[in-house]
Amino acid sequence: MKKLRRSARLVDMTQHLLARPHKLIPLTFFADQYGAAKSSISEDLSIIKELFELEGVGLLKTVAGAAGGVKYIPMMNATEARTVVEDLCEMLKSPGRLLPGGYLYMADLLGEPEALSKIGKVFASVFAEAEANYVMTVETKGIPLAYATAHYLNIPVVIVRRYSKVTDGSVVSINYVSGSSKRIQTMSLARRGLPEHSKVLIIDDFMKAGGTIRGMMDLLEEFKAEVVGVGIFMETANVKERLVDDYISLLRMTEVDVRDKEIRLELGNYFKKEI
């Protein structure tokens, strides 16, 4: 039991809540932790709740009853999310990011902790009510985004491999058609990696026609899992045939001019849906 002044108790409670997003914490836990009455803990939580909402940190939800408690839900409102994505958009428009073949270099951005944290919080806000049990992505560039999102949802990450490894044990493998190249490719997931009937949120860095996303959806059917959401950091525009209909994108690449080294980007469909 910690004997702390109220100011110190507020700091300690805040840290505890931030470190455990989406976890229901009984009021008795805090009461026993600090040797305080539940009424005092409730007053403290009211102060934290007001500050979280004022500063855009997230929400504190209180669940009544004997099995109730308080839960911190990280949230970023649409206005703040728009600002975050617009800043990222300006960074990605640099001509130096254009690679041969019209590809866009994003590896440095997807390895920058602050940017990743913001993107992860945007996705976690979008899918806060999806009740996902796992975040899924395919190796390799989508992995940082998946972990950033999973951090704010406080759920595990499942990584689909292009090639299975002996350390995966027994695996489920499927063939899928790449949406852009129309090539037959393979992806696999360890049988122990995902319990059957799980609710899965798919997160990926880039989508053209959506062949890889469709492949993950088909793979999840082998696990009798439910896809509760699909989040894409960047999609391409003007695709003749999209293999995925229901998804959220944060950015859209509308045009790449290789000769003049111009990259044209716009906000993704999430912001249009918000409008």
TrEMBL record:
Record domain Bacterial purine repressor N-terminal: where: 5-74
One Pfam family per UniProt: PuR_N
This protein's record includes keyword Transcription regulation: yes
GO BP: any one term: negative regulation of purine nucleobase metabolic process
The keyword DNA-binding is assigned to this record: yes
GO-annotated molecular function: DNA binding
Occurrences of domain Phosphoribosyltransferase (ranges): 113-244
Keywords: DNA-binding, Transcription, Transcription regulation
Family named by the database record: Belongs to the purine/pyrimidine phosphoribosyltransferase family. PurR subfamily.
Subunit structure: Homodimer.
Protein's UniProt name: Pur operon repressor
Organism: Aneurinibacillus thermoaerophilus
